[in-house]
Amino acid sequence: MAEIRRLPPEERARLAPLLNPQSPTDATAAYYALDHPAGRTELFVELAGNGAPRGFLVLAQTGFDLFRRLAVPFAAHPLGLVRLLQGALRPGQPFLLMLPTDQEAWIDGLVDLSEMRVFDIYRLHTASFQPVLNVMVVASEAPDGGARFDIRAASGAHAAAGVNWRGSHYAEVYVEADDEARARGFARSVLAAMAGQLLSERRIALYRIDQLDVPAQAEAYEVGFRRTGERSLLAHAVLSPAGKGAP
């Protein structure tokens, strides 16, 4: 009989055999399960009858939302996902949920979702990487100690690129740009600088792009990013008091 337990941070390495460190599909879950700071991470594991982990859920404090923790489940079957959510969260407790879109149906009736966005996951193809030489790009140190790249024009236009997280093989980048900066190609310049920096660290950049953000998709393609075929959702979520998805 499977059971859900809280996993102490010092035992998080037990989750590693479930993950493929070379796969962009597993990269986000792998980072939060294995590398996110222990003091900002709570882990729940689904144990098989023999005591071996077969799924997990991470609750992480992140910069996405200062008031809601990010829930990142890694489950191979619908019942496991339901059990992990019920074991880790209280009904009515707000959280952010990051989930593969093909698993959304697994939580129908169990979790109420709002402000949902759907993202395509892009991976930098090193053979297609196109560096951009722009003397306006300025490197600085991000709060996490890593690199960040900015362009600030005299007109006030601004673009910046940094990372949401760094794992052992992959790192997820972000880009912020106003309309003028995007029109002048600044977003592409800082994205290329960030991707190149990660390559120098022997990491591959992943980029989660809103499916409706056509300009960002075009910029990513020009730099050398390609779709992985994976999609994820990010939504405000609340566990229903008496969800239909309960086992």
- Strand content of the residues, in percent? 35-45%
Strand order of the largest sheet: 1-2-3-4-5-12-6-11-10-9-8-7
For the record, give the distance between the C-alpha atoms at the N and C termini, rounded to a whole number: 13 Å
How many β-strand stretches? 12
- Which value, in Å, is the CA radius of gyration? 19 Å
Number of helices: 5
Quickly give the CATH architecture of the largest domain: 3-Layer(aba) Sandwich
| Helix vs. strand class | alpha+beta
CATH superfamily of the largest domain: Gcn5-related N-acetyltransferase (GNAT)
Helix percent band? 10-25%
Overall pLDDT confidence: 94
CATH class of the largest domain: Alpha Beta
User: What is the count of structural domains?
Assistant: 2
**And the CATH topology of the largest domain?**
Aminopeptidase
What spatial form do the alpha-carbon principal axes imply?
globular
The largest β sheet comes out as: 12 strands, mixed
Order of helices and strands: EHEEEHEEEEEEHHEHE
| Low-pLDDT regions | none
Describe this structure in words.
The chain is an alpha+beta fold and 247 residues long. The protein folds into two domains: 3-118 and 232-239, Gcn5-related N-acetyltransferase (GNAT) (Aminopeptidase, 3-Layer(aba) Sandwich); 126-223, Gcn5-related N-acetyltransferase (GNAT) (Aminopeptidase, 3-Layer(aba) Sandwich). Helix content is 21%, strand content 38%. It has helices at 24-34, 78-88, 179-183, 186-200, 214-223; strands at 3-7, 41-47, 53-60, 70-74, 94-100, 111-124, 138-141, 147-152, 158-166, 170-177, 204-210, 225-239. A twelve-stranded mixed sheet has the order 1-2-3-4-5-12-6-11-10-9-8-7, with helices on both faces. Helix 4 (186-200) packs across helix 5. The longest helix is centred in the C-terminal third of the chain and has 15 residues, at 186-200. The protein starts with a strand and ends in an 8-residue tail after the last strand.
